[in-house]
Structures are given as C-alpha cells and as structure tokens.
Amino acid sequence: MLVVLAFIILFHITSIALLFIATIDNAWWVGNDFYVDIWKNCLNTTASAVCTEVGSDSPYFQAIQTVQATMILATILCCVGLLSFVLQLFRLKQGERFVFTAIIQMLSCLCVMIAAAIYTAMHDKFHPNLKLADGTFGYSFILAWIAFAFTLINSIMYLILRKRK
C-alpha cells in the first residue's frame, strides 16, 4: 500500500509541476520570430527579444484575464489538494475515502480545462499585433492539457483510493 501512496503523491507533485510550468512559462503560442503566453508577447529581434505585457487596450482583455485567473486557481487548488491528501492520510479512519481531496482535484481539473479551452478558441484575438498564422501551439499549452489529464486521473484515483494497512 505504501507503494501506491508514494505513486499517488508523485503523480500529484507531477501535476503541480506541470501546472506551474504551463502557467509561468512563455510558450503557449510560438512562431519563428515570436512567442506568446497568457502574460506577455515577445518578438525576437536580431539581438534580443522585446516583450510587452498583454495590455488592457485589447478588447479581449477580460477573456485573457479569465485564462490567467483559472490557471492560477488550478495551480492553487492542486497544491491545496496535495496538502488535503496528506492531512487526510493521517486523520481518516481506515476504509474512508478521500472525497474532499478528489473534489479539490476535480475543481483544479475543471479550471485547467476552462483556461485551455478559452485560449484555444480565442488565442488569435488575444495577440492581434502578431502574425499568428505563422505559429503553432507551444509546449506550455500542451503541458496545460497534459495537466488537465493528470488532475482528472488524480481525482479519479482519490475517489477510488481507500486507506488500508
């Protein structure tokens, strides 16, 4: 049983790391001469990269703020879920389920899905000054979808998991 618990904790920590990388790193949409994320746009010049923050002058600023907020909330919920799991591990009686932790993970999963879906639908409107047809989704965007799958699987594992000797 200790191996299963260690695997679940490792899986949960991996989910947290994926969410942190996807939220912070600047690679949601990349091209030859630019890379953008939910925080800023960066244009590659010959000497360096010139980055500008996503500004409130965009008509879709509320939508990008929604993506930012839900990714931050997903990361926080995933961290709280790990803390909840560790606390419940020592406090629950034998055979009780980790339902609270599963609910927190499911909410984290939902937040990641909302953020990635909004970005998928509206990424060309978030960065109107760039030639986005020349780019592709970057690894941070892909990590966000992988984090969605990990948090979903993690929440299902918590619903199934029972504390045994």
Automatic annotation (TrEMBL):
Membrane topology designation: Multi-pass membrane protein
PANTHER family, alphabetized: EPITHELIAL MEMBRANE PROTEIN 2, EPITHELIAL MEMBRANE PROTEIN-RELATED
Subunit structure: Interacts with PTK2; regulates PTK2 activation and localization. Interacts with ITGB3; regulates the levels of the heterodimer ITGA5-ITGB3 integrin surface expression. Interacts with P2RX7 (via C-terminus). Interacts with ITGB1; the interaction may be direct or indirect and ITGB1 has a heterodimer form.
Entry protein name: Epithelial membrane protein 2
Cellular component, GO, one term: Golgi membrane
Family from the record: Belongs to the PMP-22/EMP/MP20 family.
Presence of the UniProt keyword Disulfide bond in the record: no
Compartment(s) of residence: Apical cell membrane; Cytoplasm, Perinuclear region; Golgi apparatus membrane; Membrane raft
Pfam annotation, one family: PMP22_Claudin
InterPro entries noted in UniProt: EMP-2, PMP-22/EMP/MP20-like, PMP22/EMP/MP20/Claudin, PMP22_EMP_MP20
Signal peptide: none
Keywords (A to Z) from UniProt: Cell membrane, Cytoplasm, Golgi apparatus, Membrane, Nucleus, Transmembrane, Transmembrane helix
Annotated organism of origin: Pyxicephalus adspersus
Transmembrane segments: 67-87, 99-122, 142-161
